[in-house]
Amino acid sequence: MKIAGLVGEGYKKELHAGAGCCCSLNDWRKNVKRREPQLNRTLINPLPEVMQVFIKCLAAEFMSGDKMFMTLHKMGIILEEEGYDEEEVEYIKTCSMHVFSENQNSFMKQFMG
Predict the structure, then answer these.
(1) Do 39 and 91 contact (CB within 8 A), yes or no?
(2) Residue 29: predicted pLDDT
(3) Of 66, 93, 69, nearest to 79 (Cα)?
(4) What is the spatial distance between Cα 24 and Cα 4, in angstroms, rounded to a whole number?
(5) What percent of the chain clears pLDDT 70, i.e. is strictly above it?
(6) How far out from the chain centre does Cα 93 lie?
(7) In this structure, are residues 69 and 10 in contact, taking their beta carbons and an 8 Å threshold?
(8) Of 17, 37, 95, 100, which is the most exposed, with the fewest CB atoms less than 10 Å away?
(9) Are 29 and 22 contacting, i.e. CB atoms less than 8 angstroms apart?
(10) What is the pLDDT of residues 26-59, one digit of tens each?
(11) Mean pLDDT confidence for 97-109
(12) 64/62 Cα distance (integer angstroms)
C-alpha cells in the first residue's frame, strides 16, 4: 500500500485502508465513515453497453480485483496516450471498476478481494 502513485492508491482502495476494523464485535464499527469517493449515480455511465457486458463476464470468472485494477491502470495509460483527458480517464476507470465490483463472483470477493 505504500507504493507511490496510482498503484499504491489502488491497493489502499482495494484493501479499504483507513476504513477501520471489520470485526463485527466492535460497537464503534457502526460509526466508521466511508472515506473513498463514491461513484456519482446521477451521471451516465460512459461505457458502451457491450463493454459493460464484457466487464460483467470478466467479473463472473476467477479474476481478482487486483488484476482488474492493474488492467484498468494499463488501459488508462493507453487512453491518455491516445489523447483522453486525465479526468475523463479516471471516470472511465471508476465506472469500469464499479461494474466489475457489482458483478464480481462472490467467491472471488471472499477469496482474494
Answers:
(1) no
(2) 60
(3) 93
(4) 32
(5) 67
(6) 8
(7) yes
(8) 37
(9) yes
(10) 566 666 666 555 555 555 677 888 988 888 888 8
(11) 77
(12) 7
Alpha helices, DSSP H, located in 41-85: 49-60, 65-81
Determine the pLDDT at residue 63. Answer: 77
Measured in degrees and rounded to the nearest 5, phi and psi for residue 32 equal -70, 130
- pLDDT mean over 4-29: 70
Sequence-separated (6 or more) residues with CB below 8 Å from residue 43:
91
C-alpha cell read off for 79: 487512453
Average pLDDT for the chain: 77
Three-state SS at 83: coil
DSSP collapsed to 3 states, 17-41: CCCCCCCCCCHHHHHCCCCCCCCCC
> What are the grid coordinates assigned to 92, written together?
472511465
Integer CA distances (angstroms), 88 to 43, 76, 84, in order: 13, 10, 7
Q: How far is CA 6 from CA 14, 34, 53, 93, 97, in A?
A: 12, 20, 26, 12, 14
